[in-house]
Amino acid sequence: MTFSWKRIYAIFNKDMKDLSKNYFVSSIIVLPILMAFLYGGMYEMGLELHYMIINLTLASVTAFIQCAVIAEEKEKHTLRGLMLSPASLTEILTGKSLVSIVLTVVTLILCAMITGYEPRNFALIAIAIFISIIFYIALGTILGLLSRTVVEASVIILPVIFLFGFGSLLMVLAEKYPAISFVEYLPNIQIIELAYEVELGLGFVDMWDHFVVLLVWALVASLFAAFVYKKREIDK
After folding, report:
1. Could you write out the DSSP letters of every residue in the chain?
2. CA 66, CA 225: separation in Å to the nearest integer?
3. Contact of 56 with 166, CB cutoff 8 Å
4. Locate the ABC-2 type transporter transmembrane domain: which residues (predicted)?
5. pTM of the model
6. Which domain does 146 fall in, by range?
7. What does R_g of the chain's alpha carbons equal in angstroms?
8. What is the pLDDT of residues 49-64, one digit of tens each?
9. Which candidate, 107, 35, 14, 34, places its Cα nearest to that of 64?
10. Number of domains in the chain
């Protein structure tokens, strides 16, 4: 079976049309934008606030929309048909992920324009965010496969939004309670630490460890998403 961009585009186009009709799901994009207006207008934006909005976008827009588009296929009983179609696993997940990627990038750009965030090294930050997007898409895919309906997906995603969207607050607790110091290895914390090093003028060789941690999160989540997908394919 050959890799087909035509099949990927067909899946992407279908999901974009479905999402444009589902205001319950698409309205999630408003959340980080409203937060950007709120904090951008009230506070002197420090790096922590910039990345709270970025992480919130990744957790709410990327993960939730990915979760919702998968769950919607299950709710409509069309996921099984998609699994049995000529499209491969890579084509199906790529087509569905493109919707989340496009909406995430648009939301991030709008939020950055509102808050005035201009990283010292755009390339390094862009790479880190792209790797993070892969992680959140994989996470959203897993949760979508475990959900039965879009409403259920909107509930199951809430812990993800709080943990990864506002997870930087956990660092305050980690300083007080060393037992939860492992939270510093969460992807949302790693990208904040990486951003601070970027602002200090450090290069890739000085922060490669953060990229490795982000890549590990993305790889493990992607492999697990593929495993869950294949298991659902076999079970049904």
Report:
1. ----HHHHHHHHHHHHHHHHH-HHHHGGGHHHHHHHHHHHHHS---HHHHHHHHHHHIIIIIIHHHHHHHHHHHHTT-HHHHHTSS--HHHHHHHHHHHHHHHHHHHHHHHHHHHT---SSHHHHHHHHHHHHHHHHHHHHHHHHH-SSHHHHHHHTHHHIIIIISGGGHHHHHHH-GGGGGGGGSHHHHHHHHHHHHHTT--HHHHHHHHHHHHHHHHHHHHHHHHHHHHHHHH-
2. 12
3. yes
4. 53-226
5. 0.90
6. 5-235
7. 18
8. 899 999 999 999 999 9
9. 107
10. 1
With left for phi above 0 and alpha for psi between -120 and 50, is residue 116 left, alpha or beta? left
pLDDT in tens, 8-41: 888 888 888 887 777 777 788 889 999 999 887 7
Positive or negative torsion for Cα 136, 137, 142, 144: positive
Neighbouring CB atoms inside 10 A of 39's CB total: 19
3 torsion bin: left (phi>0), alpha (psi -120 to 50), beta (else): beta
The pLDDT score that the predictor gives to residue 234 is 57
Contacts of 118 (CB under 8 A, 6+ apart): 112
CA distance 223 to 208: 22
Measured CA to CA, the distance from residue 192 to residue 197 in angstroms comes to: 9
